[in-house]
Amino acid sequence: MPAGNLIYSYGFGASDRVLDDAPAVFLEGIYSTSDSTHPKADITSLTCIPEGDNHVVFVGYANGTLEKLELPDAQGCQDMIFVPCSSREAFDDHGDNVVESISASSTHFLSISSAGSACLRALSGEPSEKIALDVRGWSTLLSTRSSRQYATFGTTSLHPLAVHDVLPSGISPNPFFLLDVPEDYTRPTAVYDITSAPMSSPWGASDQVIISGWFDGFVRVHDLRASDTARSSSSAASPDASSASVGSLQPALAFEDPWSFEPIYSVSCGGGASAHIAAGSARHSVVSFWDVRYAGKGWSVHAPGNDPSPVYSVVIDVRACSARTRVEGSS
Which domain of life is it from (predicted)? Predict the structure, then answer.
């Protein structure tokens, strides 16, 4: 997890006593990406390759730089390790705009800047065509598991959650589907984080379920399988489709903490039976949980002492038989 210009790597030990016993957590290493403490050198986004080498990460910075890092083996060293130039590959895809989000698949990685520019690259670093969304960018989700590959973007706009085709030439400039807001919304709103359901979730082994965290404090679930419109749009839309022909879909489920009115900054799905959703809020270190099998009930936890920090990232282990959650925040 990032903090300033540092990356902290933690490992989880196995628990062999009881099923719900929390595993041990140990520090694997601390890595520095810059000798400067200037805010422009801060890490603003980070992701690993799914089912790939955990020592290879993609990092975005406040100065607009995007890097592929190979983290050295810390070998139990507790001192800070600087990532050498020989282990870094830089990409200048976003000018001097903040890199807000990076997501990766087994073949590509996708980034978006605060200015709404998006770029898809192969893991080898080969560039692909960039697109300009012309709105404030926040979050990304890349799916290359199915025959129709897509990229989902979270923005600040009237339609803040849009799905675009991923083509051999790059990302389609026009969305093929809008995952729409409630019908009574008439002003721009924002989607700050996006995730997908695990393949082992109760919704079935599909990458068509998209979970998102919104400015209004709701977590919304959109299922592209849920309507004939989605299926016909998915099979018939072309990269040159006009906005008038873009399909739209209302959320299949929506979750909220009725006692919290804070925006949702982060979402994750996994845990026990891969059926839990966790959402980090913008204040007081609150993390809310729901079990999608019992959608009407949920619970929330927060840090002691009324810590005012946001929860910028929350990750649930999808392999665990009980939910184990990692939270990243900043005061």
Answer: Eukaryota
Measured between alpha carbons, how far is 321 from 117 in angstroms, rounded to an integer?
39
210-248 per-residue burial string, b: 16 or more CB within 10 A, e: under 16: bbbbbbbbbbbbbbbebeeebeebbeebeeebeeeebbb
Q: Which amino acid is at 227?
A: S
Quote the distance between the C-alpha of residue 130 and its chain's center.
Answer: 19
Q: How far is CA 255 from CA 37, 101, 198, 200, 261, in A?
A: 39, 23, 18, 21, 12
- pLDDT at residue 272, rounded to an integer: 79
Q: Where are the domains of the chain?
A: 1-92
Cα 162 versus chain centre, distance: 14
Selected residue with higher pLDDT from 190 and 182: 190
* pTM, rounded to two decimals: 0.85
Q: What count of Cα atoms within 13 Å lies in the side-chain half-sphere of residue 303?
A: 17
